[in-house]
Sequence to fold (1540 residues):
Amino acid sequence: MRAYAESLPNVSVAKTYTYVCSEPGQQLIRKDIREKKLNRVIVAACTPSLHEPTFRKVLEEEGLSPYLFEMANIREQNTWVHMQTPKEALELAKAQIRMALARAEKLEELHPKEVKIGRNALIIGGGIAGISAALDLANAGFNVYLIEKSPTIGGRMAQLDKTFPTMDCSSCILTPKMVEAGRHSNIKLVTYAEVKDVQGYVGNFKVKVLKRPRYVDEKKCTGCDECSKVCPVEIPDEFNAGLSWRKAIYIPFPQAVPPAYVLDEKNCLGLTPLACAKCKEVCEPEAISYDQYPTEIDLEVDTIIVASGYEPYNPIVDEEYNYGVYQNVLTALEMERILNAAGPTSGRIVRPSDLKEPRSVAYVQCVGSRNERRNVYCSRICCMYAAKQARQLKEKHPGMDVYVFYIDVRAFGKGFEEFYEKTCREYGVQFIRGRIAEIDEDPETKNLTVKAEDTLLGRPVELEADIVVLSVGVTPGQDTKAIQNILKIPIGADGFFLEAHPKLRPVDTTVDGIFLCGTSAGPKDVPDTVSQARAAASGATALMATGKYIIQPYFASVDEPLCGGCGICLPLCPFNAIALEEKVAKINEALCKGCGVCAAACPATAIKANHFTDEQILSQIESALSR
Amino acid sequence: MPEKFEPYIFGFLCNWCGYAGADLAGTSRIQYPPNLRAIRLMCSGRVDPAFILTALKRGADGVLVVGCHPGDCHYINGNLRTERRVALLKKMLSNLGLDDRRVRLEWISASEGEKFAVVVREFVEEMRALGPNPLEGNMNET
Amino acid sequence: MKLRIALEGLGACAGCEIAILDLHEEILSLLEDLEVDYAPILMDKKILNENVDVLLLSGSVRNKHDAEEAVRLSEKAKITIAFGSCASFGGIPGLANLYATRELLERAYLTTESTDNKEGILPSEEVPPIEQVIKPLKEWVEIDYKIPGCPPQPKMIKEIFQMLLNRKPVTLSKKTVCDECDLKREEKKIKRILRWGEGEPDGSRCLLEQGYFCAGPATRAGCEAKCIAALTPCRGCMGPPENVTDQGARMVSAIASVAAVDEKDRVDPEELATMFKDVVGTLCRFSLPSSIISRKVLERKSK
Amino acid sequence: MKHRTVTIDPVTRIEGRAKITIWLDGHGDVKDAHFIVFDLRMFEKFLEGRPVEEVPQIVTRICGICPVSHHLASAKACDMLFDVEPAETGTLIRELMHMGQYIHSHSLHFFFLAGPDFFTKGREQGLLALMRERPDLAKKAIQVRKVGQKIVEKTGGRAIHPVTALPGGVTKRLSRREVEEMAADLSSVKKDLRELVNACKEGLLDRKKLTLNLDSQRSYYSSLLNDGDFNLYDGMIRIITPEGKIAEELSPNNYLTQIGEHVEPWTYMKFPFYRKAGWPEGAYRVGPLARLNVAERMPTPEADREFNEFRNEFGKPAHNTLLYNWARLIELYYAVERAKEIVENEKIDANDVRRAFKIKGGQGIGVIEAPRGMLIHHYAADDEGIIERANLIVATTQNNTHINRSVRDVAKRRIESGRIDERVLNDIEVVVRAYDPCLSCSTHTSDQTNLEVTILNEDGEPLKVLKR
Fold:
């Protein structure tokens, strides 16, 4: 083998060594590079995925480009798999060395590229995920722009009454975080605003944010509520899941951050021309101004964290539940608001049809989840929130009958199983395994009859309930598609953003410098959301902390005089690294990951896949099949 | 009678799945015939039909392209691009009078060492049955 | 001293020579600096027995006579130019490579419906024997430049003559037809390949994006994208761009790569292949003889 | 048969794309002569497997001089195959394209190639001679041809190998501006044409004796005809006897019933004939002379005037081969006049350029009058619209028999008892050129044949080789 290798043209020295990856083995290479003035090194040994980095380092330290190194994998892909055919294995090994040499001859001097990266992060979404990530980054000394679509941060968690399995009050733990985020000197909060466009790449994102007019000066507003009192418009209150009313000028909830009112332009009687203007008349601090317009804010950021949240499943499409038809069929979020002391009923449990206290409540699990027709995935939170709400109902009214119809109970988290067990055993909530067939309403009493099959006992069940609560699942946020188009990050089959790798890079996206967290990436509960948010913050920190960012030189490049600007390559790039400028494709090196799909497709061969060039590959093919 | 015909197979393996699967076959000591000469590319999406044609022209009796399973591509969908290229190329090869079984696309993940060995074994047998590549420059011709 | 040139067409259609004539009155001024030593189309032949500066050879080598003629003439020229796509890449006559010589001759002289040939005569006396395979001219003689086009456009011809007159190397645009095409490009995502003439194309948008196969992306610039301007997709007559060996393979790669792969409108690979009714005849129409696999091969029976 | 055994390597010792071999008998008189065409490209075969709608663009490459004829004959065959009536304006554009080609092709032949035989003096002939001796005429000739090519480019997308015709019409409509440009060009060319034609006619008449005496072939003639009217784009096939009587009038779709092709082993060009008369008696001629012999009148005024003058002068049918040149001039008039009529048609820039078609199987036959004569394209396709069989009968092929006969007859006149008159080469060339044999169409390559004449003795040994 050694003699064969040495006999090949351009080979100035060939040596054998038992463990060439060991320190003495590396020394051997160093010595030859220095003494024999080598400009290419080939190691025929194990798979490059083990020691390619080791040997590259040797070259680099000897002043050669680390990419002038090539390995012939004669172990994993030869001797270990061709043990019975030593003669043929030897021939193959020779071919592998020829191929490595053919490639090495064509290798080009490449150097990793360094780009500068600053200290600014953009976070899209001001729920618990966005807030947690923002605080971590801000505390680490980075500048954060926290963009929230609604008038206040807080997100879905602000609507929750208590959180499982600890039963702590949701707003009690959330509000301090909101306030902290609102006050932090490193966090610039931009509410009532949306990201409209993002261009560029890690270390150089150019962001356009559209801020909608609030018509109320956040700094001047004292929250006195005088404006709201005089406002003649009443519309369903989103915060209370539509169970109460709010005015056109309002504050979403008392703990809102920023703690300022907002004029809901869509529902106001009219600003142009001014139709009512009562609120302005009563505003003592003169915080209200009708002359506000949407403003565009340009930001330059280095990293982006997506925390755009989720949308509760809307069961109106499922006929069997008659949600929206029968008044006493509620969603779990509506029940959450009813349970809340600051909610529409001030925590008194009543049913919507007659505002009477229910004697029995039935929960229907997996609404919109684990269903071929809707969403196949498990929404992960419904089992536990149903158990939690059931327990809350029992706490308030121990005599109430509470049933939960389930497929199976998934109590996988820390303390979940214990919580579920206790809810059954100590609180007497009845869990019935079975999917419901239909819900009927008595038109007079508005009482409901739930028909189901108990699949454990194998017999039909029919029971009366004053309220049926649908445990609705988690679905992708309304803005997911829009954000995908802006950030060019992929969405999975379930409609949520896709992580770069489900296990090893769970908060990265395929675009460098853009991270995911919370329910924008899939259903999860508060603790998981927060840990993921902090993981995303850590990912962004790791990028920004050193002030520089290394790009592998595998990126593709365009030989411009050859490019006709056909645009074939553009849609192929999964990272949107290619753009057409003046009928010439331009590749953004920082976005390119070096897969080479564009080079293979370029009909003019104008695109070169560095380190995997046509020349290199073709010479490998030629040498493989020649003797 | 000439000696038993041993087909040459040229392989294009993607770094993340095919190549890793081949390595796993190695570490698991799963044996397969020594007729494959393979190179590593970052993604099966780098496989240019011209490479496959060149390998055939230079005498490869079969060409094996290995990528990640759909949905697992390290680069999202490079494998799907190549899937379509290979399908169209196969039609072109048939038009040109070559048996399109000479080009084979397989999805083999990094954990499928066994599958890698099986695929190579099967492909070599198939090509053995098919006989030498009839193109000029076939190295198996005397 | 005037530049002395010679023109000769081998097996071809004479379109390349007509293309020179299509310089119209500009020929007159060209002739002030240029002496046509030998050009059957323009003038009665003199025997080319002296050296000329430039020989423009068009057409393909279909028979032994063409081959010898190419060799004989190029020996007398300082610069030999493969003029037009037949000489450069094989051209449309190269599609004959999809058939065996016997099949070609039998169709032409025996089985065509109007042919009356009970004796089964195939021309074989006094005529030069046919070459089995069409190859580009460079396989026969050493070529200094390839001038693509079926035929080369007069504007390009004029530029080439200017370069030759200035004793400069002949250089052409290395870009593709897309560079010269004015249709607007939106997104290349192909859901289906339409036959030419199916449906009503939008005359302002890239034809490929509308599902009409257009070889422009893998075809060298220089034709001014005239076909596309006449609302007809490119069929690749300018041959492959400078660095491309196999125009058909490039087009296979490009088209297949932009076939839709999103969840919603995914083009099945097999379906994609069936959308093309004639892969080689469409994608390699002008360049089969210079493609990697340049002719039809027959699988041998296994021994 | 002895001469056939003589091996003369036909390749190394000749210069041209075709060669002529003359056999002498024991007395040194001409026994036979062959006009041997070397090249072949076999489109008939490799059209198989191509989608029907692609064929009009492929067959243009049969000929770079008359690509429009192939393009349109093919498109007509495709119309029939896909059962689609071409759009009205589309048909006008096609015919206009065809007239553009006639202007180019006929002026190329007459002013650049054949004509100078008659009105230049030098030994060197062709365009260069015309430029030297009559630069004024040369410039005008170039202008006339340019106008033709410009029309082809506007209607066909490109001047050479146009692309716009497809089943059901053409792809591109004409803009008003394009129509006006063409109208202006055609008006200006009419004046130039008159001047050129007069000069040519003088030349022709000057050498009237030569013109009429050099060669005469009593033959059948065949061309398209529309109710007795001369027509280049469409019509019925009429075949007339050497006496000028109508032998046959048939729909192009029935061409196979009356047209057969004979094969000889010594040339790649076939020999079509009129079946009822049989081979070789039924060999017929096509092209300008045939069209004028077959036609009863010309439908445009100036052409008709010229036509009547021609007929009065030479009778019907006119058999003198050199009158092909004269006939070509008359057709040039027609092409300019007809083109003008079309551009003045108010529908020429309408939107109605193409009709939708459905892909299907079937047969399609398209026949058109190419500049050099009748051109037949015939395809059969499968249900997916893929060509299964193609048959092409091109213009010059149909003159093959008579080109051979003309060569033989001229040779007989110039070679007697072993005495070879050196003028034989010149005369053969003049007569062959009259046919304007487009050998690229009929298998071959360049428009201009370069002749080498090999004269063999009775033992088949080369006696003399004449070249130019």
Q: What stands out?
A: Chain A has a mean pLDDT of 93. Chain A touches chain B through 48 residues (CB under 8 Å). Residues 307 and 413 of chain A are 22 Å apart (CA to CA). The first helix of chain A runs from residue 2 to 7.
